[in-house]
Structures are given as structure tokens and as C-alpha cells.
Design a protein that fits this description.
Blueprint: H1 2-43, H2 66-75, H3 90-106
């Protein structure tokens, strides 16, 4: 009986972890998809820059915090960065930011 209880407890501890990993994967995939569709035409497929600036380095003209990126993506910036707030939800913008952070880690 004790063995069964221990197995159940361990299973309950592992299942949420697996679900979290799957959720993270879905978020990352959607962020990558949106980035490819909306951002890569200017920032390049790896975020290294093209028309728009490199998103993988540590130089951020308007600040590099998640809130700064959210502001930039939402409202755009003078000189070419379009505002996406009317086309992307707050949740989708946050997924793109997570993807950008992943690109920067890969450098």
C-alpha cells in the first residue's frame, strides 16, 4: 500500500512538470511563428538585423527590458518600427519577446 501511495505522489509531482514543459514549448513555437511572419522581414530570421536593428546584441536604443520591448513592439518607434498593438494581442507580444530573448541567448 505504501508503495502505491509513493508512486501516485511521484506521478503527481512529475505530471505538472511535463505539462509546464509542453506549455513552454507551445509558447516558444507561437512566438517563433509570429516573429518569422511579422519581425523577420526587417530583423532577419535569426534577429541579427537587416532593415531593423540586431536583436541579439546588448545594444538597445530604446531600452532592453521586457517592458521596453513591449512598448516598442506595441507602439512602434520613429524611423520604421511599426506599431503592432492593433494586430497582436498583449499575450502574443509577450510570446514574441520570449522568442527574442531566446535569439539573444543563442547570440
Amino acid at each position: 500500500m505504501k508503495t502505491i501511495v509513493m508512486v501516485v505522489i511521484l506521478a503527481l509531482m512529475v505530471i505538472p512538470s511535463c505539462q509546464k514543459d509542453k506549455t513552454e514549448e507551445v509558447i516558444a513555437d507561437e512566438g517563433a511563428r509570429i516573429f518569422k511572419q511579422r519581425c523577420s522581414p526587417c530583423h532577419g530570421p535569426q534577429g541579427k538585423g537587416d532593415i531593423g536593428p540586431d536583436l541579439t546584441d546588448s545594444e538597445w536604443r530604446y531600452g532592453g527590458t521586457d517592458q521596453d520591448l513591449f512598448e516598442t513592439i506595441s507602439n512602434g518607434r520613429p524611423g520604421g518600427m511599426p506599431a503592432w498593438k492593433n494586430e497582436l494581442s498583449e499575450e502574443k507580444i509577450r510570446k514574441v519577446i520570449r522568442h527574442i530573448r531566446g535569439l539573444a541567448e543563442k547570440g
